[in-house]
Records
---
Amino acid sequence: MELTRAMESTVLHWGEMGSRWGVNRSIAQIHALLYLSTKPITADEITETLGIARSNVSTSLRELQSWNLVTLTHVMGDRRDHFEAKTDLWEVLLIIVDQRKKREIDPTVSTLRKCVLDAGGDGTPEDVKSRLNDMLQFGETLTTWYEQVSRLPTTTLVKLMHMGAKISRFVKG
């Protein structure tokens, strides 16, 4: 696959941003390459295009598939596996947020629930109990908000994003 200067810059930047977000650079670069590709491509094509070790490509593709950002597909007349990325950016955003919530927020809220219970009888000072409870309430509020927003149709989400701070006019207090 031949990359234009713009495509190469995007792939490199997406890899850089991925590493800042806690995602392996290769995974982010492969995701960007698949997103930009106008057709499904093979792991060998990814290896050749990005100059990444084949084993790294395979591992990265499995990770992207586990996040449901990339799917395996087949091309008529070619027995090799091909890969393609989801191209609806709103869907990609919601998938990433959902996966991060499951991997980061949910375990934190679960641990905080246990800590609040434990603090009830282990001699934890009252001000610390209060802070633990505040943390738990924050996590639960964030979770409830996410669950409500994630069920909204994409068109509604887009309208909310475009409204920005103007939405505060509809909120009392």
---
Amino acid sequence: MAGMNDQLRILSVEDDPELQQMLSLTLQGQGYELHYAFTGREGYEKVLLLNPDLILVDMMLPQLNGPEMINLVKENKTARDIPIIVMTAFSADAKFIESAIRPLGILEYLRKPVDIDELIRLIKRVLQGRRARTAPIQRLRKGSVRLDPKYRSVWIDDKLVATLAPKRFSVIEALVENRGEVSCAELLKKIWSGDAEGKNNLEKTVQRLREDLGPDAAQRIRTTVDGYELIG
């Protein structure tokens, strides 16, 4: 999910501009790509837009508070597996904090004022744990087009464009895997096991795939003499 420069992307959702500035200087200095949101609503919208590798969330936020934003993230199929670290000024009683955040599915938190060294250690541990869990999941990219097979989702310029039905995802996956065109014969063999009736199915599937991608992204799937090509 990292950007094209392979930096891990962190979204900080915090309404304190001084803390945001400190996080920016510290985390960018550690090599992370840092993005900001100052309200819960803006934070949720940026989660969907940026698809970050990690989210830092303050519990007390305007518009949507921390728990409300986290619940929205957890209800979204494409975002619910993104790890979240809560930053809170709640009571110093660890049991009280844990009882407040565990119903949200959050296990990691930091008390305010934030200890920067502790934050860096926690971020590294959480990201390493996530990398280990997602290592078997292949993510495919061709130019600005990126696929996530786990959710059968298509991202263009790091923006979610569509979540596809299985056959449609198989078609775009085959197009992403190849530098140039993919012939109809290759697609029929790979996806429809060479079924003689598959040609009509292929044409309908490509048509529906283009509809799913929308008018702008649909133009990236070019019809060639022998098949199709994806322009990344």
